[in-house]
Specification:
The chain has about 375 residues and is of the alpha/beta class. The protein is built from 11 helices and 15 strands. About 35% of the residues lie in helices and about 15% in strands. It binds zinc ion (ZN). The site of zinc ion has 7 residues, from loops.
């Protein structure tokens, strides 16, 4: 049985994204409602974990907030201080469509710290693997600005701080959030020590990034791998992308640790994405990454929560991942699974295979 870590903090839910409709802030033309990135998806994920009995069988990892110097491993001091100033006052926007309230700076430091602490324990061999259910998310944040509901790059900051502490050579990130992991890509653009892989719906968000041609630069050339998939892709396309691109890339790179920026907005229930995944897809992708991690890096696998906007469905995708990571099957079955699994088009389609084949050609440039 695996020793699996679990990070959560109540304050993650207190990060306030304000009144909005989907992702547009309330105004004279947008009636105030709930922001898509609100606490509910995360709260219900945490709650289902409790009800399933799984939480108590995992090792709880305490969040220790990162500080300004830690954030500055990735972010500019100007940006960090601007967020802090606004957060101390009444909140604001981290650049565009990234609203936050009073105290969100401290909460974001806690989220990056939760990801750091979990990764630290996996690297120290206290844990085999684990999941940090953090908020706000991080994979869109760039060095000098927040983007797409993300204030600070939780995964980049955690990797850079842990690299200082543990001195490992190679980390691979596999971002299965439905949106492009532009922030993680930018953080390690010229760094061959981090292979950044992102599977995402083609040109969803950001609209102008995530193409296969973005491969890194300088010493990092070849160590950024984008796998944009057509809208409507389902279980078959993602499993094929893993088998034909992600796993061969990991085997070529031989990382010391695998990190997953984990969003569940690729599900068939998500209001922001147009993919069709279900809990069995996330379970199977987790199984494949665990197998790769066992072969390549002593099983070391860390996940940090990103997007996922269906309050009803995110919890079942999350539970499937945690069941797989821990090797513990709970009594909870995903009630939606028979519905989503039977959507037409779940099998791999020719135009999806074309996109996967094109991405697979990029693997040849990756070396350990
Ligand atoms: Zn997303």
């Amino acid at each position: 049985m695996m020793k699996t870590g679990w990070n959560f903090h109540e304050l993650y839910l207190w990060h306030d994204t304000g009144a909005a409709a989907q992702f547009f802030p309330a105004s004279l033309t947008v009636e105030p409602g709930e922001h898509a990135e609100n606490a509910e998806t995360k709260r219900r994920f945490r709650n289902l974990m409790e009800v399933s009995g799984l939480t108590e069988q995992l090792t709880s990892v305490k969040s220790v907030p990162v500080d300004e110097d830690d954030l500055a491993l990735f972010h500019t001091r100007d940006y960090i201080r601007r967020v802090k100033r606004l957060s101390d006052d009444r909140g604001g926007d981290a650049s565009y469509l990234t609203p936050f309230g009073r105290g969100s700076y401290e909460i974001a430091c806690l989220a990056a710290g939760g990801t750091f602490a979990l990764m630290d324990k996996v690297l120290s061999r206290e844990l085999d693997n684990g999941y940090a259910l953090v908020r706000p998310p991080g994979h869109h944040a760039e060095s000098d600005k927040g983007m797409g509901f993300c204030l600070f790059g939780n995964v980049p900051v955690a990797i850079l701080k842990n690299r200082k502490k543990h001195g490992f050579e190679r980390v691979a990130t596999v971002d299965w959030d439905v949106h492009h992991g532009n922030g993680t890509q930018a953080a390690f653009w010229t760094d061959p020590g981090v292979l950044t892989i992102s599977l995402h719906q083609e040109r969803l968000y950001p609209h102008d990034s995530g193409d296969r041609e973005e491969r890194g630069a300088g010493a990092g050339l070849g160590y950024n791998l984008n796998i944009p998939l057509p809208a409507g892709s389902g279980h078959g396309a993602y499993i094929a992308a893993f088998e034909q691109v992600v796993l061969p890339a990991l085997r070529a790179y031989k990382p010391d640790l695998i990190v997953v920026p984990s969003g569940f907005d690729g599900s068939g229930a998500d209001p922001l994405g147009r993919m069709m995944l279900h809990s069995d897809t996330y379970r199977e992708m987790t199984r494949m990454l665990m197998e790769a991690a066992t072969d390549l890096c002593g099983g070391r696998l860390v996940m940090s929560h990103e997007g996922g906007y269906s309050a009803a469905y995110v919890p079942y995708c999350g539970l499937a991942v945690l069941e797989q990571l821990s090797g513990i099957k709970t009594h909870i079955d995903d009630p939606f699974l028979p519905v989503f699994r039977n959507y037409a088009g779940q099998d791999l389609r020719p135009w999806q295979q074309d996109a996967i084949s094109a991405a697979a050609e990029l693997v040849a440039g990756i070396r350990a």
